[in-house]
Amino acid sequence: MIFRFLTSGESHGKCLTTIVEGVPSGIRIDIEFINNELKRRQVGYGRGGRMKIESDCAEILAGVRHGFSTGAPICLQIKNKDWDNWTIPMSPYPVEDTKENKEKIESKKIINVRPGHADFAGALKYNHTDVRNILERSSARETAARVAAGAIAKCILSEFNIECLSCVMQIGSVKTDFPSDIFMYKEKIENSDLRTADSEAYEAMKKEIDKAKEEGDTLGGKFKVVFKNMVPGLGSHVQWDKKLDGLLARAVMSIPAIKSVEIGLGNAAAETAGSMTHDEIFIKDGKYYRKTNNAGGIESGITNGEDIIFSAVMKAIPTLRKPLNSIAIDKKEEVSAHFERSDTCAVAACAVVAEAMAAIVIADAMLEKFSHDSLFEMKVNYQNYLKRISER
After folding, report:
1. Read out DSSP for 82-124?
2. CA distance 236 to 81
3. Domain 4-390, what fold?
4. Tens of pLDDT along 2-46?
5. CA proximity to 136, closest of 251, 14, 42, 277
6. Can you spell out the DSSP letters for 142-209?
7. Structure pTM?
8. Is-cis flag, bond preceding 89, omega within 30?
9. Rg (CA), the chain
């Protein structure tokens, strides 16, 4: 990968940090845009108390001068405002051996694992008896750092007029197929705290979330992400690890709680004949076009110029107010699972994280195709490529 990023930090640690490498020089890095992306991740009906505490803002520490990338690695920091309450339990340094400090640390210790979370498998893998050492890093809080990295990827894509948008299609049992072209309803989606353009479905989704909250339960759902103004020829068919759809699926599946990813027609392809599955190609006035986009803009791992479309399913959050049956990791006894402050539903937020992860993959493919030293060189190569393929 050319566009690479690493994140560090814990849910209740001092901060989250992202280091992004491979950004060409000359890209305008808009801190207001980055912070607005972080704000989008925090919105959502059914979010928990943490969102009332945190108001995420990124600080650029390196790699940007006077608002433009220099070509050096970019470092971003997002402070955790709740850190003041965790300075002893989450201190990276040895703390004074006092009764008060021991009590503070013990009060945050966790041994009751949550089914569906990293708690159990992580504690076994890393040989921890305090599950907090696992859940602090496996928490979805880490996705704020991913969204910051994704915002930088979007800054690159915007130079080529590539836009993206996500829309929630299902919460619990409430589904909607509206709209088919989500960009027609961008403003409505962005102003919805459930990221839906369907007013009727919105009310039903809220009721579903309210019911789950009353019952101490949680809900998952499904969302769609679309990238438009795509150029053909990103990705490759020549090796398994160069196929763009595979890279997208991997990136989105890496988001906590994602259980499936579908490109284009997705699962429906299982019941659709070939004559109705594949997107026929036509020509008019010397230009190629298609009437359908069941491939989701990718054929054999390569973009074909149509919109990239994928959907993903997020499972219900494993932290329940009405805890599931589980075990205490160090006592080998049956207990109720631990409850850590959590959301009832975070599908809308997850959709924004998926935008970020997909933007990173697509930006990386653009850098691989058109150079990655400077925006100037990248645009020259891009224009030459468009000229060449327009003559085919």
Report:
1. GGGGSTTTT-SS-----HHHHHHHHHT---B--TTSSHHHHHH
2. 43
3. Chorismate synthase, AroC fold (3.60.150)
4. 999 999 999 999 999 999 999 999 999 999 999 999 999 999 999
5. 14
6. GHHHHHHHHHHHHHHHHTTT-EEEEEEEEETTEE----SSGGGGHHHHHT-TT--S-HHHHHHHHHHH
7. 0.96
8. no
9. 22
